[in-house]
Structure formats: C-alpha cells, structure tokens
Design goal:
The protein is mainly α. The protein is 76% helix and 0% strand.
Length: 170
C-alpha cells in the first residue's frame, strides 16, 4: 500500500504542479496580450478560473492524503498514543463522510444541473468543470482508507503509534 500511496502522491503532486505552471504561463500571456500586444485574450481569464477550481480541489485531496491539513492538535498532543490513534481514525472517517456527502453527492448534483450551461469563452460544459468536486472526493476517500489502514496496522505501543502520527503530520 505504501507503493500505491507514493505513486498516487507523485501523480497528484505532478498534476498540481503542472496545472500551476500552466496557470502561470496563461496569466503571463494574459498580461502580454493585454498590455504589450494590445489585444486582450478572451479565454485566458476563464481558463485561469477553471484551472484554479481543479487545482484547489486536487490540492485539497493531496494535502488530506499527506495529513498536512490544518488541524488543532493542542488537546490531542496531551493524550495517550492509543487515544490519539483512535482520534485520528475518527478524523479520517469524518473526512470520508464529508467527501461522500458534500464533494461526491453534491458535486455530481451540481455537475448534472450545470452540464447544459456552456462557458462563454471556452465553449465547454460547466458540468465538466464541477467534476473536480467528485474527483477530489473520491481521492480523499481513498486516502482516508489508506490512512485508517495505516493507523490500524500500528501496534498499541507508544513508539509505533508515535511514528505513524509523526509520519502523518510531516
């Protein structure tokens, strides 16, 4: 499972990096076409907006998979490793529930509703843009399952549990 996680992390990190690089190039082209060429590009603003939606959703899944999301650990740091491990499992189950109800179910609803709406500059269905929500939801669920398996594999000894917790927060 560690190999699959590493491949998925590299793939998702590469996609996010590539998407960010494309966004930088498109933003530069937008400035050049507007101020140097004098003919502003009409599709760049829309492309940047849609790219930002996909980048933020995929980035959210990537960060959740690496357990580097924002969290308050002041209380969790003071409890025993066993309680901390169960709290992390509850947290992963909460992420999965959020992903199912909000990202997947809600994302599929908004995608189907907006599939007939066509973006003005790029001419693509808006539902395809909103597919970023269920895709991110599926990735978060996948990462949550892997995180729960890793937590359950850890023995109840403090050293192993602390190692798993440190790896998840690094």
């Amino acid at each position: 499972m560690d190999t699959f996680r590493k491949v998925l992390n590299q793939l998702l990190g590469g996609i996010c990096s590539l998407l960010l690089a494309v966004m930088v190039c498109v933003a530069c082209w937008q400035v050049i076409s507007r101020y140097i060429v004098g003919v502003p590009s009409t599709a760049t603003e829309e492309l940047l907006r849609f790219s930002l939606v996909w980048l933020s959703m995929l980035g959210m899944a990537y960060v959740a998979g690496k357990n580097q999301h924002i969290s308050l650990t002041i209380l969790v740091d003071k409890v025993s490793p066993a309680v901390r491990r169960w709290w992390m499992i509850v947290l992963q189950l909460t992420f999965a529930a959020f992903s199912i109800w909000v990202l997947i179910i809600g994302g599929l609803k908004i995608s189907s509703i907006s599939m007939l709406q066509i973006s003005p500059a790029l001419g693509i269905p808006m539902g395809k843009i909103y597919y970023a929500l269920p895709v991110a939801g599926l990735l978060i669920i996948l990462y949550s399952v892997m995180n729960i398996v890793d937590l359950l594999k850890a023995t109840s000894s403090a050293a192993d549990t602390d190692t798993v917790m440190e790896n998840q927060h690094d």
